[in-house]
Every structure is written in C-alpha cells, then in structure tokens.
Design goal:
5-stranded mixed sheet; 27 helices; 33% helix; 16% strand
C-alpha cells in the first residue's frame, strides 16, 4: 500500500505565513505610502467649496420686512455667515454632538474608526459610520456637485449614508475610503476655522434650511449670533437627522437629542476641570484644544439616546488624550501658506482677516453646572411653521424681472414695496370685491407708484392669490386688457403738443359717420348715448366723450397716436396702426395696468417717462421726455377739474378729493374691463376690475366698478403726505374766454370762464358765435337802425357754424337770428349793407376729414341782401377767380350755395348785378 503523504512541518507552515504576512504588510505600506504621496501631491480642489452663487435670498420690502425667501440651488433657505457671526455656544454644541476631536485629527479620527469597527462587528450590521465633521463636509460637497441635495440631507446619518451610496451604485467601503482621503486632502488645504465655517453654512437643518443662519431665523426668528445655549444645542442636534429631529413634527425627539448634547458639553467641561485643562485659544490658522475621549457618544454614527433627556450615557475621559495641540492640525498655517489661493473662494487660503479670525477665542466653551441647569430648564419657543409669503403677485414679478440678480444669491434683495401699504390695499380690494359679489368671479388689480422715484409701492394682482378656482394666481396688474377711455389723455396731449388744439378748442360732439374705406363706416357713440354739440376740449376729455376724441384722432392719424403711446411705454400695443384704426383712442387694443400707471406717472412727473422699478433705489435707467411740461400740466389740470367732469358724470362721484387728483376712468367694449387711474403730485394709482375669463360686468363702469376702490387706495397712499398742487410751468397763461365758443370772451357772451394756454396759443379773435341783434317786436325780424325804440328789443342769438352743427342745432331748438329786416321799420339812406356774407365768417378755420371723400365734404355759403330780387344773379369769387358752386336757390333775402373746399388760405366774396358786392372775408381750409 502506498505510503501516506508527508505533512509539512510546523516550522515550514509558519515560515510561509510569515512570508505572506510580510508581503501583505509591505503591500499595505506601499499602498499607504502611495496614498499619502497622492494626498500630499494632489491638494483638495478648494474651488469646489466656493461660496460664490450660494445661498438663498430673502426678499424684503423697502423697510426690511420679509416678503419671501428665494430658495437656493438646493431648493432651500440659506444665508452665508462667517464663523465670528455664529454664537460660540452653537460652535461648541456642534463639535460636542458631531466631532468633539475635530481640533485634534487631520480629517480622519482613528479613535472613531476603531470604535465604529468594533460596534459594527458586534451588531452584525452597519451601526456606526465614524465620519468626522470634515468627512461630512466632503459628502455634502459631493452631493452638491452631483446635484443630489436630497441624498445629502440624509447622508449625514451613517445608515442613510450607506443607503445613499448604495443608490449611487458605488461600494460603501470605496465611497467611505474616498471620503476619508478627500477629508485628509481638505484638511491640508484649509484651516480648521474655514472647514467649520463651510460645514455650518452647508449642513441641512431641516424644513428646507441650509446653514445655521437660515435655520436660526426660521426656528427662532433671530441671527445665529444671538442664540442661547439651549437653542444652540437644539440646532446642533438637527444635522444628525433633519427629518427625524424635525422640531415641528418630533419636538420630543429633538429635545432628547438637545439634552444629550448639553450633557456631553457639561461632562467634558467637568472632565477638563478635573485634569486641570482649560480651553485653549485658537490661533488664526491653528486648531485649538479640546478634551476628548475615544468613546464619546457624540461622535458621528452613535445612535441617539432613547431614554429620558437627563439620564443619558455620559462619556468617560480617557487617559493619555489630554495633551492636544501637537496633531497635524497645528501646522495648518504652514500648509495653507503653501497652497495657491483661488480668487473666487472667499476665506480659503487667505489671511485671517479675510476668512474670519478666531484669535483669542476657543471653539470649546466650558459649561458650568449652573449654566447647564439653566439650559436644561429653558423652554424651546419655536416660531410658527410658516415662511413669509406676502405680496405674492409682486414678489412673483420681482423674481421674473430680476432673476439675474437672484442667480447671484445676494443675502437680501430690498424691493420697492411698502408692506404696510400693501396690506391695507389688499384689505381694500377684499372689501370692494365683497361689494361686487353679484358680479360672479370678478377680480381686481391695483398698482401704486411713487412718482418721484418710479418705485412700485403696492401691487395687488387679484382678490386672492390662493383662490385657484377664480384663477387667483393670474396677475391682473400684468395681464393685457382693453383700456377703454383711459388712453384719451395721450391723444389730447399729442394734439396740444402739435398745436392742433388747445383746452379751449371746440370739438363737435354730434352724430358722425367716419369713413374707414369703401363701404366701411365707423359711428362711435358716447357712453350715455347723448350728443352735446359744440364742446371744448377740456370738457370733452374730463367728461370722456367719445365722438370728440375720435374726431381728434382722425386729425392726428392713428400712426402718430400709436407712436405717441409707444413713447409712453405701452409696449403691449405691438400691432400696426391699421390694426387698431380710429378705435385705438377708445381702447381698441390691449395694455397692462402697469403700463397704464407708468404712463400716467409720466404725466404727473411733468412729461418725463421712466421704467417702473420693483427694487428700492433700483430705477437706474434714464427717463425720456414724452411731452412738454406745459402739455403735461394741461392734461393734469383738465383731469383734476371737478367742474368739467361734473357735466358728464354729475356731482356725486368718488373723485372729489380735498387735494388735487387727476383721474380718468375707462370702460372697455362690452363692459368686460373697468378702470380708474390717476395721480397726485406724489403718487399714481391704477385700478382694474374685470374677469379673467373675459366675462362681462353688466351695469358697471369705470366710475362705479373701479372708482370707489380707486378713492380708498388713493387715500391710503396719500396718508401722511402733505397735499401739493400740480406745479404750473411759468410759460402758461390764463385767459378769459367764451364758455361756448372757446374764443376770447366778446361783449355779448353770456357765459365766461378762464382757460389755461401755453403762451402764444390763446385765441386772438373775440367770440362771434354770440350776436346781439335788434328785432322788431311786431314781427321778430331784424329791426333797421331807424326803427322806433318802442318797437325794438335786443336779443343775443347763438349763431353756430352750419357745418357740422346745423342738424344738431335744429334738433335741439337752437334759434338762429333772422336773416331779413322788418319791412315795418322806416328806412334811411344808410342801412345795412346791400350784400353781406353771413357764412362762413371772417377768420374761420375748417378741417378736412382725410378718411372721407372730398365730394362728401362741402362748405355752406350764405349771402344776405337788401335787394332779394337780384338774388338769382348771385355769384361767388374765390381768390378773385369765379367760384364753381352748387346753388341752393334764394331763401327770402338770402342766397345759399355749396362749395367743395380745397386746402389753403382763401379770400371769398359775393356779388350781385348792378355792381353790388359784399365784403371780402378770409377763411382757412386744412
């Protein structure tokens, strides 16, 4: 039988084992040497920790009151602060709870690693992660770079960290080793103070907060510099598990963790006192001293206590760990000095002054028994769990308009809004909408602007931002809507600017068919369906009469008016002029309330337009001159004229104020939008009422539907402001005029008023519409100069021009003076002229309608004679040339004809047989 195999001798086996172990140790040493060489030769890329473009932005009103937090890139709230702006209690509590040997180790804590290995082997599962504060910072930066903020929030928990790594597909051991290596590299590149600053500004504290400052303001309403010990210990507990220790949902759990940290701080202070070690002041770039133990339950990965807050496991000081300050952290200054600083990284690789020096201050604060007892007894008073969410439409507009500024993550963005005024305006809108409850889902929007700065003081976009059923999140202040008559002042301003009209110019408010093209006519109506005949421009604008406004626009031309509106900031009117036509002056177009308020503010500013600003002191952009100060004042004077407004709206309107207020109303076609907009010398207020679904508002107008809200908001906006009159430029003058004709008042004018004119534009001739005529009492005809006084009486007649007032005058019973003399009056040698031109009158100006064919535009010629038998031979001359007219035949002592005028200044004369000629008159046709 074969011999049994020989067993290797024990010395040979031992030799092999030692050989293998030797190779393993050599390999391990070689790997360690290579790893250390890599750590030394490849410094951590500190630019990854740049604070540039980090942090949320608190949006505040002009007084600093918070409106909303614009979240950071992790969809959270954060506010970067330097270490010297953080309560020393919070620093000490954070180190006690997360990494109490932070000032000793070089990024990896060997004691924590040993403890974690032992605990994990004992539990048979991953029970402790041994992550230092530096390793946690590396993990957070990795998560940020990977755009994985959700995982980063939970990754600070050791068990959740393993889950996060597993989700990422990496081996937990590989990930942990990489984090350890990066932590060692980071410790060589940055000082302890800088690492701690980074951690405190990046760590998640729950409820969407990152960093101690945002968390302190959320939970306690104060800066992190002002926290008490109890509050600091609570905040220090949160990064361990932001959701598990959420004080709003799990206050008992968070409080137990807080008390555990307080007990750790007290026990370590007692241990330091027992061995005679005082906290060591921290040099500018060297770690300070802190007593430590290898088995402190406050290290990362230890499970929180589950029993009562006071009866927690206290650490026992370990011997041989008191002499601190000789670790690699002590050489931070030398390492940083040799590391190139990144210009974009604040506080990294820089001098203590730039990074926030802690000279003379220890990271660890001693907690004596009395302080400890007070902290345990202090109740935790949390602010309500509600982030500021005020003026939502306004803040939405700020975010949309100033997104670039928010991308730079300023700590605070100061807006132009006045929150006290905003809250009052919101309440006013709510009250007004309750009054309009029968209008269904009606909405309202309000904008208030400071005229001097162009800053928006208040913006309400709907009656309730949160009312989704009524589309409350639509911002009515920015939504294009038909403006009704609110654009009329800009047409009148253009006419005044071009010297085509003055406030005294008479405009015909009579039924008129405007020819738009072949077979197309436009027949505007006034709001009350009435026509008032001759109306001065002041009354036409103040009373918002439609027909005179369309007549004025016809003379100006829609292209010129549209260009005028663009200069006033109406960018929403982006169609060509032909798209809007003559209806543009009545609101056939869409503008926003913001545009409208900005345009009216330009009038209040004396004709200078500038963009409205949503930021405090942020107007910045240069304005532009859109009309002269004189014209701007004329418009303001007309719109603030209660007497001129009364003729159309009556005495009971919401627009009578104890100080000058220029206001204009508007109602769109079909009463779908009603407006009131106006200004004082200090503020401009605009109000829109309508429906976001485009529905009608039956029975409402700008006066009724928007006027009461306008009045209330204007009073709120003017409260505390001194009443001021509109500044009148020195180049204006007041002239007495005839209230009917707009000419200088003549001796026979029964009604007179004063009007304001730009110097040189006041009418020169006296009123010729009022004529004092002597009548024969016996027959009502003209009384000759030799009529006995007992048979005569004097009467003032209104002699309106036939065109365009003939039909209106007859319909309204306007009596014209008789044309013939009474045959009962004795004659004398010198009587009335044998032939005189009665119409047109000397000096009259006639305007052609460019949109109406010339053959439909004729001028009525009337001549009166004392020899009517000669009227069949009546002939007319124009500029000394025979005039081709259409004779209408004699009417008593008058002969009439129609003439198609042509532009120019003309001399007109009439003639009969026997050499009888009339006076020569001069007329102008434009």
């Amino acid at each position: 039988m074969p011999a049994p195999p020989k067993r290797p001798s024990s010395p040979r086996i031992a030799k092999k084992i030692f050989k293998i172990m030797g190779l393993a140790w050599v390999s391990a040493a070689l790997l360690a040497a290579l790893g250390w060489l890599w750590i030394v030769s490849e410094p951590y890329p500190v630019e990854r920790l740049s604070r540039e473009n980090r942090g949320s932005t608190q949006i505040v009103d002009r007084h600093g009151e918070p409106l909303r937090d614009a979240l950071d890139e992790r969809e959270g709230r954060s506010d970067w602060v330097e270490l010297d702006a953080v309560s020393p209690w919070l620093v000490a509590a954070t180190l006690a709870g997360e990494d109490h040997r932070f000032e000793d180790h070089a990024g990896v804590d060997p004691w924590a690693v040993a403890r974690a290995i032992k605990a994990n082997l004992s539990e048979g599962r991953v029970y402790s992660g041994a992550s230092t504060l530096t390793m946690q910072l590396v993990r957070m930066v990795d998560a940020d770079d990977a755009d994985d903020a959700i995982d980063a929030i939970d990754a600070i928990d050791a068990i959740d960290a393993i889950d996060a790594d597993r989700r990422s597909g990496a081996s937990p051991l590989v990930v942990k080793l990489r984090q350890a290596v990066d932590a060692l590299r980071l410790e060589r590149a940055m000082s302890k103070e800088e690492i701690l600053t980074q951690y405190l500004n990046r760590a998640p504290y729950g409820n969407g907060t990152h960093g101690v400052e945002a968390a302190s303001r959320l939970y306690f309403g104060r800066s992190a510099a002002d926290l008490s010990l109890a509050e600091a210990a609570l905040l220090a507990a949160l990064p361990r598990s932001p959701s598990g220790y959420d004080p709003y949902r799990h206050l008992d759990r968070a409080t137990r963790r807080q008390r555990h940290i307080l007990n750790l701080m007290r026990s370590r202070s007692a241990a330091s006192d027992a061995v005679g070690v005082a906290p060591t002041p921290v040099a500018s770039n060297a770690a300070g001293a802190s007593p430590s133990t290898p088995a402190a339950s406050g290290s990362v990965g230890a499970s929180p206590p589950t029993s009562g807050a006071v009866g927690v496991e206290l650490p026992t000081p370990a011997s041989g760990v008191v002499g601190i300050g000789s670790t690699p952290a002590a050489s931070n200054a030398a390492r940083i000095a040799s590391t190139p600083a990144d210009a974009g990284v604040v506080g990294i690789g820089s001098t203590p002054a730039s990074g926030g020096s802690l000279a003379g201050r220890s990271l660890v604060r001693s907690v004596d028994a009395a302080t400890h007892a007070r902290a345990l007894a202090q109740p935790i008073a949390l602010l309500p769990r509600r982030a500021p969410f005020r003026a939502p439409h306004f803040v939405d507009a700020v975010i949309e308009r100033h997104g670039a500024a928010l991308d730079r993550h300023p700590a605070r963005l100061t807006t132009s809004l006045s929150l006290p005024l905003q809250l009052e305006v919101e309440a006013a809108v709510a009250r007004h909408m309750r009054r309009l409850a029968d209008q269904g889902p009606a909405q309202a929007a309000v904008v208030v602007v400071d005229n001097a700065s162009g800053e928006v003081l208040s913006m309400v976009g709907s009656r309730d931002w949160a009312d989704e059923a009524a589309q409350g999140q639509v911002n009515g202040a920015l939504a294009p809507r038909q403006p009704g008559s609110t654009l009329k002042p800009f047409a009148f301003a253009l006419a005044f600017e071009r010297h085509l009209a003055t406030p005294a110019t008479v405009l015909a408010d009579v039924p008129t068919h405007f020819v738009l093209g072949p077979g197309q006519t436009y027949t505007p109506q006034n709001f009350d369906l009435r026509f008032r005949g001759p109306v001065r421009a002041r009354d036409a604008l103040a009373g918002s009469l439609n027909v005179p406004a369309v007549r004025l626009l016809q003379e100006l031309g829609p292209p010129a008016f549209l260009e005028q509106l663009h200069t006033f900031g109406f960018d929403s009117l982006d169609e060509p002029a032909g798209h809007y036509g003559l209806g543009l002056v009545l609101g056939d177009g869409e503008v926003t309330l913001m545009e409208l308020v900005g345009a009216y503010a330009a009038l209040a500013r004396g004709g200078s337009w500038r963009p409205l600003s949503l930021l405090r002191g942020g107007a910045g952009q240069e304005g532009r001159r859109v009309c002269s100060p004189e014209v701007a004042h004329l418009i303001a004077d007309i719109l603030s004229d209660d007497l001129a407004r009364m003729a159309a709206f009556g005495p009971n309107t919401p627009f009578s104020f104890p100080y000058p207020v220029a206001v204009k109303t508007g109602t769109s076609a079909g009463a779908r939008d009603v407006w009131s907009v106006g200004f004082t010398a200090q503020v401009t207020v605009g109000v829109w009422v309508g429906r976001f679904d485009g529905g009608r508002l039956p029975g409402l107008s700008g006066v009724v539907g928007a006027g009461p809200l306008f009045r209330e908001v204007m009073e709120l906006s003017m409260r505390g402001r001194p009443a001021q009159a509109f500044v009148q430029p020195g180049s204006l003058e007041r002239v007495e005029i005839c209230a009917l004709s707009g000419h200088r008042a003549g001796p026979d004018c029964p009604h007179r008023t004063h009007e304001v004119f730009v110097q040189g534009q006041a009418p020169e001739g006296a009123c010729a519409w009022h004529r004092l005529v002597a009548l024969d009492r016996r027959n009502g005809l003209l009384a000759g100069p030799d009529c006995p006084e007992r048979h005569t009486r004097a009467q003032v007649f209104v002699d309106l021009p036939e065109d365009p007032y003939a039909d209106w005058a007859r319909a309204h019973g306007v009596e014209r003076p008789p044309a013939a003399f009474s045959p009962l009056c004795p004659a004398r040698e010198q009587r009335a002229p044998e032939l005189q031109i009665m119409a047109p009158q000397d000096g009259e100006v006639f305007l052609l309608n460019p949109s109406r064919p010339l053959e439909y535009q004729t001028l009525r010629l009337v001549a009166q004679t004392t020899r009517p038998a000669l009227l069949p031979g009546l002939r007319w001359t124009l500029d000394d040339q025979p005039l081709d007219v259409v004779a209408l035949g004699p009417r008593g002592a008058q002969g009439e004809a129609r003439w198609t005028p042509r532009p120019g200044v003309h001399r007109l004369q009439a003639a009969l047989g026997d050499g009888i000629v009339s006076q020569t008159i001069e007329i102008t046709v434009k």
